[in-house]
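Person: Show me a sequence?

Helper:
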Amino acid sequence: MELEQIIDHIATGSDGLFKVIEQGLTIPPLGLRRSARLPWLAALEQAIHRPLLLITDRNDHALMLADELALWAPKLTRLFFPEPTPLFYENAPWGLATRRDRLMVLTTLAESHIPGGVKPAPVIIIAPVRAVMARTLPRREFLKALRTIKIGQVIQPEELLRSWVSMGYEHTNIVVSPGQFSRRGGILDIWTPPSDQPVRVEFFGDEIDTLRRFDPATQRTVNTIDRLVISPAREFISPDPESLHKLNIEETNVTEFYIPLLHPEPSSLLDYLPSKSLVLVDDQQAVMEYVQEVEEQAVG
């Protein structure tokens, strides 16, 4: 069956599926062949135009599906939400690629909750189940931390720098990787983790004069933009040194491992999904077996 036929099949509510989705009811197992799942998923998104989350068993499987989905939905926003690099009991920082991919998803979803903000296009998110289970910054705290700057905005550069430090950005002489910022007089460079390239913020006094994406290797401008959404550089907000001392956490050793301590009511990816999002499970038995495996590791 061609993709257009699948879209028509879904949109007409064949077998009551579309009606079930519209009513927000649980969809029974569909029993689709593996080869039909991705074209069906792409067609479903075009039929309902809602954010979709596809949960798989393992990280490599989720990454493979995200790559294959590009063949069926090349114009659709496809996001991969990876599981943390360390195991849940390891006190180690998450890898840069993991941080970047996860923060790209969280930022995209968080923007849909900002009143009057720019509503993102519908997306398909593919995530392994351990990524969904992993605790992250509460959505409310994430939204409070988001900063949007625009051309013509009047703000002191020092105020921006202080906010970037509190959001986990690292001050460097030259920005070479996500999560870093630098300053040279009235020019600030910042590389937000969800972005492919850093942005140069040029001031005229206390007014933002230009915003330019640039190539970090050549320092040449790629394009100009009107606004920039600055997300946290990691999935937690580190408190002041005194609060860290009370929590018995070394200031130089704060990692995502301490999210439950830093944020007593953490969230998961599910808390970031907009209303009317659709959550699908690829091979429920394999997903549940992996969940059981993770639980056994936790007990052990």
Observations:
- The radius of gyration is 21 Å.
- Residues 140 and 163 are 17 Å apart (CA to CA).
- Residues 96-111 form the longest helix (16 residues).
